[in-house]
Amino acid sequence: MTKISIGLSQGFLMIVTVTVGTVFFPVAGVVVPFAGASGWIAVLLAFAVALPWCAMAAYLARHGPPGNWGGAVLSWLGPVVGRIFLLYFAFVWLWLGGLLLGQTGFVFHDMAMPRTPPDVLNFALLLLVVLVDYKGLEVFVRTIEALTWLSIIGLLGFVVGVVPLTELDNLLPVIDAAPALIAHAALFCLPWAMEGVLFALFMGVFLRQRSGMGGLFSLAVGGAGVLLALMTVFTLGVLGRGVTTSYLYPTAILAQTSRPGFFLEGMELFLYPLWIVASFVKIGAAFTMVSLSLAGVWSGFRQPYRSLLLGVVFFIIATTPSHIFALVASISRVDNSFIMSFYLILPLLALWVRLRRHEE
Amino acid sequence: MRKKVRALRKPLPVKEFAKTPTAEGCFSGHLAHDCAGLKAILASSADLRERLLTTSKGTQGAVLYFANVVNLPFVSESIVGPLQRHGGRSDMEYIAQQIVHVPEYSLESDLQKVACALSDGAVAVLLAGETCVLLVPLFAMEHRPIERAIQEDILIGPHESFCESLGSNIALLRRRIATPDFKVKELTIGRRSRTTVAILYLERIAAAKLVDEMDERLRRIDIDFALGITYLADFLEDDPRSIFPTLRSTEIPVRVMAALMEGRVAVMAEGDSSALIAPTFAPEFLQASEDYFDRPMSGTFFRLIRLVGLLLSVFLPGMWIALVAFHHGIIPTPLFDSIVAGREGVPLPTVLEIFVLILAFDLIVESSTRMPTRIGQALGIVGGIILGQAAVQAGLVSPAMVIVAALTGLSIFTQPSVTFLSPLRFLKYPVLIAGSILGVFGVVWALIYILIAVTSLRSFGYPYMYPIAPFNLRGAIDVFVRVPKFMHQKRPSILASPEEMRMDTPLPRPTRRKKP
């Protein structure tokens, strides 16, 4: 096995894909109730706010041993605090990843396969995630890279189908809500931006080139924000404010109600694969981060036991919520508490590393 | 002293031969004795021939060879004749250099090695009183002439293909690559078959580590017999258990030449009309050699057709089942009504219906492949048209399903490489099963699984999915678009060729004429 090293363009693609992940489904439904037609501004605002954290993540990633996530964290924080950080990081992504797995099954079950239990779908997807973790980070990176190009084709098909149906009236006025309300809507998007930053921090350790990371992370997270803002624009433009606010996942409704022409009754043929691929990418990223964090805590936790055990835990977490609303509430709790906590942890961590380096 | 010499030269009975030092590996200089030693090793070979001769000086000698594998007129004219006329010195070095008219020779004193050389098609010349044997490689067996490629027939461009003679194949390449940088490394594989294998590469263009890697992998092979280079692929591939070929097999010289020019390594063997190219990347299986002899636009169009063919051949049956059985809301109502009307009275479930049809198609293909051309064509007609028509009329399958199965079957054969057909023919079954269990979710699941399987592969240490993953813009464009040749300025960057630029031709522009 050759040493894992990822190029800048690969890193950029990975960060954008993971940050957008499954968020493109609920994003409009989250921001539009507060910000109205200005929902896309709220999304952009949230991702703009996260940009300084990208610089911090890049600073940290630069100052650790390359190609070893656990080793990098231990070098920043020392063996004891480093292990505590890795455990906390693993715990957050374990919980979030498990819930996202549950979300995949629930949403696909509701959208397309009402007769198939969500747990069956979750289990099938989990098998792939466990397999890719077992194969290693390099295979995961390449799989995502290949999937991203396929997703772009699907996404383009989706956009081409949706653009002609967009009504400009639904997007006006541009400033549709008070700035406080737009800021409030942006607050809900902040965890998504931080998810991107955390993944960038993780991925940065494996990047081949150490220079230019700050710009790359900012560009990737910012680019993901732009994509999500565009998705908000399309959803709102086609469905209007009333329909967008009534659904948890308005993009699914958008796909079902759009009738592009003679060949398809709806846009689901583009949307279903996108949803599965996006879920695989996001859950796979979470799984890999947990797996390598635990490997950093205890190097004796080897494959394939690590992947198999984590797979069982992910599945248990995914099956815990009994209903889609309970699941969404759980995801929100993880986002608003644990993921948001990194807005405080990362600056402290960067400051600590800087001070230590200064002393040395 | 004289008695002692005589005693040494006295012929020994063959029974005693095994107890003498000669049996342990050396020639004694006693002609009958040495010939008997060789015959003892090659005892059961009825095709071993021995031609005794006497030089004009009176020295006795023998010429040994296997019938049918050496060039007999050449043996007679260039070896036996000159030896009979020779009347001077009788030391072997002198005879090899001055008397016999042969392009190459070697002197050998080891009995086992001489026996091996005879098996390889050499002629052994023994002279009384000489403790070494003159070996002349004169392997001259009839082989298939250079013909059109059987597996990869091409429409535009050179039609020559390799044959089973390694020497002719190398000559075919050397005629096209007239540079001293073209190197051939030969080694022998197979304890019994002693098959000659050649590594072909261009010095200063192929990375040294790639050549060394190929050399090392070949040297590691220790088997009884090697039937050809494609037979050895299992020993050379990074992951031979995978269904995807990580070495490209080709019988077209221009393809090997193009690969060598990019900095790759080819390997060929005596008795095999194919060459293996390393490293090989999966997206390259979409490229045909005609693409580069055709117009860029046509090449691009056919490449895209092949891409569509690839996707249809693997995913069409699975996707069809997924849409019809699980997500029929996506299908436009008139089309769905037509599908339902066609299925009226069909007793088989949709999944079984398509499974039976694509299996029948594969059976027809498999049976007609091994048949002589005329019978194969008849089989195709009977299987494809008559069976399909009869099945629809009997109400066993619906017409739409026949179209889907036929389209799937045809799509597979859009692929230019025969080695890539097997995985495609196989993959549609798992995708079909996944689609029939989990609908579109299953099909996408299968797609991701295939991607994981493909991206985890390496070909001689290089990522198999290059230039898609890891992504390389220049390479990725070339996968889908046949760009004009003047845009191929550089060799693939991943191969790390010491000489990256492969042309210095400016973009074609009309010549400006100076105004009078």
Q: What features would you describe in this structure?
A:
The complex is a heterodimer of chains A (360) and B (516). By secondary structure, chain A is mainly alpha-helical. Chain A has a single domain (10-347), classed as Up-down Bundle (Amino acid/polyamine transporter I), CATH 1.20.1740.10. Chain A is built from 14 helices and no strands. The mean pLDDT of chain A is 91. Chain B folds into 3 domains: 2-137, no CATH class; 166-280, no CATH class; 293-463, no CATH class. Helix content of chain B is 45%, strand content 12%. In chain B, strand 4 (122-127) and strand 5 form a beta hairpin. In chain B, helix 11 (296-326) packs antiparallel against helix 13 (350-369) and helix 13 crosses helix 15 (399-412). The longest helix of chain B has 35 residues, at 421-455. The radius of gyration of chain B is 31 Å and the shape is elongated. The model of chain B is unreliable at 1-23 (pLDDT under 50). The chains are: A mainly alpha (360), B alpha+beta (516). The interface between A and B is medium-sized, with 38 and 30 residues.
Short description:
With 360 residues, chain A is mostly helical. Chain A is built from 14 helices and no strands. In chain B, a hairpin with a 5-residue loop joins strand 4 and strand 5.
Keywords:
heterodimer; A: 360 residues; mainly alpha; Amino acid/polyamine transporter I; 14 helices; 78% helix; B: 516 residues; alpha+beta; 3 domains; five-stranded antiparallel β-sheet; 12 strands; 45% helix; elongated
Shape of chain A: globular
Let me know the number of strands of chain B.
12
Strand segment count of chain A = 0
Number of helices of chain A: 14
Q: Specify the CATH architecture of chain A.
A: Up-down Bundle
| Percentage of residues assigned to helices of chain A | over 70%
- The low-confidence runs of chain B, each spanning 5 or more residues with pLDDT under 50, are 1-23
**Biggest sheet statistics of chain B:** 5 strands, antiparallel
H/E element string of chain B? HHHEEHHEHEEHEEHHEHEEHHHHHHEEH
Quickly give the structural class of chain B.
alpha+beta
Q: What fraction of the residues of chain B are assigned to beta strands by DSSP? A: 5-15%
β-sheet strand percentage of chain A? under 5%
* Low-confidence residue ranges of chain A: none
- The CATH superfamily of chain A bears the name Amino acid/polyamine transporter I
CATH class of chain A: Mainly Alpha
Rounded Rg of chain B: 31 Å
- What's the CATH topology label of chain A? Amino acid/polyamine transporter I
Largest interface: pair, residues per side: A-B, 38 and 30 residues
Q: Return the average pLDDT of chain A rounded to an integer.
A: 91
Cα radius of gyration of chain A in angstroms: 20 Å
